[in-house]
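Researcher: We're teaching a course module on how sequence relates to structure. For the next exercise, students receive a sequence and then see the predicted structure as tokens, so they can try to spot secondary structure elements on their own. Here is the exercise chain.
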Amino acid sequence: MSMQRNKVALCLAVSLMLLPSTASSQQAPEAGVTLDLLLGEVRLLRRALERQVAFQARAQLLVGRLALQDQRVMRARSELTGADFML
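Model: And here is the predicted structure for the students to work with:
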């Protein structure tokens, strides 16, 4: 796997060396636009992650509340069964 990474890195380095310098100067405005697009995408991903974390916290609270409610129902059933037995 390490050898494969070395090959990929070598191919990338060679291809970057072979690119003419004029291509990089022509790509500068497009690179800025691309960078802005990537920055916007990162911001959207950050917002999505923040929403997911918030929803996860809410879900955990809901599960906790359901577990507590389940315990209360079980205790009430037990008390009801005990009361029915006494009658």
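Model: If you want an answer key for the exercise: The radius of gyration is 31 Å. The CA atoms of residues 30 and 55 lie 37 Å apart.
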